[in-house]
Amino acid sequence: MENKITKLFNIQYPIIQAGMIWNSGWRLASAASNAGALGLIGAGSMYPDVLREHLQKCKKATDKPFGVNVPMLYPNIEEIMNIIVEEGVKIVFTSAGNPKTWTKWLQERGITVVHVVSSVKFALKAQEAGVDAVVAEGFEAGGHNGRDETTTLTLIPMVKEQIEIPLIAAGGIATGQAMLAAMVLGADAVQVGSRFVASEESSAHQAFKEVVVDAKEGDTQLTLKELAPVRLVKNKFFNEVQELYKKGPSIEELKELLGRARAKRGMFEGDLEDGELEIGQIAGLIHDIKPAAQIVADMMQEFEEAKKSVSSL
Fold it and tell me: Keywords in UniProt for this one (predicted)?
């Protein structure tokens, strides 16, 4: 299957495995890339030396293209970008920051740059900054999200109407049917997060993977908008956040409750009560843990079957 995105990244299928903190290490990224998708390493949860180790292991595990997701609000950003260049990475997805800051610098070093946005306004800013493509992520997505709560169904066509560069849809996409729907709405590819959390190669704790598989409709909610909007599984920590909101907390009080490394505690270490468990609404449709290659194969089979089914309408 060939289109703007498969050509841009030199990949077989227009599927991007999201670079999620504490979930997307070299094992998942290389497995996704080997299966024909674009695997991404989530640099946001890695110290510079850890990132370098993951990049080197990923290069040994695949000869296919892979990339790195870099949240620009994280410390050591200059060191991280230099390591990416030194290790010969050719694709970078930036998020949580101004795309003008690093886009030109990366492109001058032969790197394709994609920026993650949650609104038409920021998609236009990313295009103005010169990025090669954008990921438009709807309200359904897990992890950090947009404050406006614009759903993928409405966000994708609105962004498509305004931009000229390639568009990748994210948020609530875990099946080939959803992939087809996103592409009908104007996307050139899809970015998939939650489905890959529940993969054998994901670096998420097994207990968190099982929470994802057991999740039902309504088990997640977007919260902490005053800090950075994040969709969380409703657990003890989430309930503590809701109780604090009843008191009209200040930003400092929210930060104090959140503390440090709570996402690591939840997703990577498996603390299901006091940890921050980030996952998308689509978790309610994820019922098993399987190899990344099988996830890609299943999505493509569902995609082709959905195309045939739609053509008969």
Answer: Flavoprotein, FMN, Monooxygenase, Oxidoreductase
